[in-house]
Amino acid sequence: MQSIVVLAGGVGGAKFVGGLVGELARRHPDASDRPAVKVIVNTGDDMWLTGLRVCPDLDSIMYALAGVNDAERGWGRAGESSRVSGELAAYGVGWPWFTLGDLDLGTHIARTALLRDGLTLTEATARLGARWHAGAGLPATLLPMSDDPVETHVRVTIDGDDALLHFEEWWVRLRAGIPAREFVQVGVESARPTPEVLAAVAAADLVLLAPSNPVVSIGTILGVPGMREALAAAPAPIVGVSPIIAGAAVRGMADSCLAAIGVETSALGVAGHYGARSTGGVLDAWLVAEEDAAAVPQVHALGIRSAAVPLWMRDAATSTALAGAALDAAGRQ
Length: 333
Prior knowledge:
The protein is of the alpha/beta class. Helices cover 38% and strands 19% of the residues. The chain has three domains: 45-144, Helicase, Ruva Protein, domain 3 (Orthogonal Bundle), CATH 1.10.8.240; 151-186, no CATH class; 189-331, CofD-like domains (Rossmann fold, 3-Layer(aba) Sandwich). The strands form four sheets. A seven-stranded parallel β-sheet has the order 5-2-1-9-10-13-14, sandwiched between helices. Strands 7-6-8 form a three-stranded antiparallel β-sheet. A two-stranded antiparallel sheet has the order 3-4. The chain is globular, with a radius of gyration of 19 Å.
């Protein structure tokens, strides 16, 4: 095995990719023998804020792989301060409920400068990743799902009126407290996967779907025209990891997102939502939690191989163990 591709977004994706990198290092102590990891990252959460291009999922995964993420909060940089955000709020600029730390702002300023200089988001992401580990770079290659801007918005009803909010406003400010009527990927119709993304999928020996939000993370990646077709044609097995354990989202509010699109919040429900590759979906295999072992034969009935394994990623050890289970599941194809 020479190359592994992961579709990921958010904190769950960051933990899983970190576990995968750790497990591959354990299995292949010689770095020259280690499979390359390429992560196709959701950019639907991206936005322009205070004149800066902010890419939450790209940054969460970058910080985690660099070892500088805030593990307690689950997002942002460790050891942060927020003096600049305080000044912006005093000027009435930006979103006061969406606090960007000072170190984090350095990332957004650098990214915006690179984009203004004419680099694509893929090129800018590579430049940002190259600074870590004393210039050796990250242990995985981060690939934005598209260089074309796609932003997830949420249609809701507020005081009887129709409103279309950026996903981060619905997620962070409102805490998904207002039911979502629809998710709208603004700009997705004209977006395309990058050449780097298509080449990575075509050359992969294994494709993994991280336990990220199936609607606004993995779902947004799959919604880019051409992405599903690339996966359908991929020679590699595609193994997904359930983000649902015992009928509840592992993290965040994926249950609210699934309810909005009429999908049951269960490991079986999400497996059916992704579908079997043999019938036009994207999955060859699906890992469910030990708590959901009863769903394994039902997933098999969908045409998707399945196994029940420990899914909780509580620390580095459990994250690497889960990644190992995903690698082993691919070997059973």
